[in-house]
Amino acid sequence: MTDTPTRSQRLKAATAAIHDRLDARIMALDPFAARDRYVRFLRAQQAFHDALGPLYAAPALRAELPDLAERARSAAIAADLRDIGLAPPPVPDAPPVTPVDMSTALGWLYVAEGSSLGAAFLLKAAQRIGLHTDHGARHLAGHPDGRAAHWRRFTARIDAIDMSDAEEERMFAAAREAFARFRDLTEAAFA
Description:
single chain
């Protein structure tokens, strides 16, 4: 007997290709080679997370994800930019992501929250250029309970929310759109 994959496992599978391409592209841009390159990466992060602000503030989402407010990273990214003190290159503003429906919002949040899970690797790279979780790399810090535990709480909520097949497909599409948006912001930051 085979176990049926959870919704979050299906979401991971549905976005694996675009996620892998994005990871490879970011590493090819070498954002941790020097602080001026890191600032470009931060600007892409800032534009992406600022656009997600309406999701982190949405009452319906907060009801489903009680710790949602503490997951927002825009303030930490802004503090990281101030720490470094380099003038960031311009990046086009990203239009805000508004909570059209729960499944679409969850797709976008999945990408944002997943990036905090993978940030452990990025934090090590940031440390090589003199940055740390108290200066310049706050947004890469793990949760006090641990990255994995924090991620599992999030995916458990995704798995528990009642959703139709059509809503699940919208969540998958939204996650792919979120990965594509971050790719576009990254390309603009490094152009």
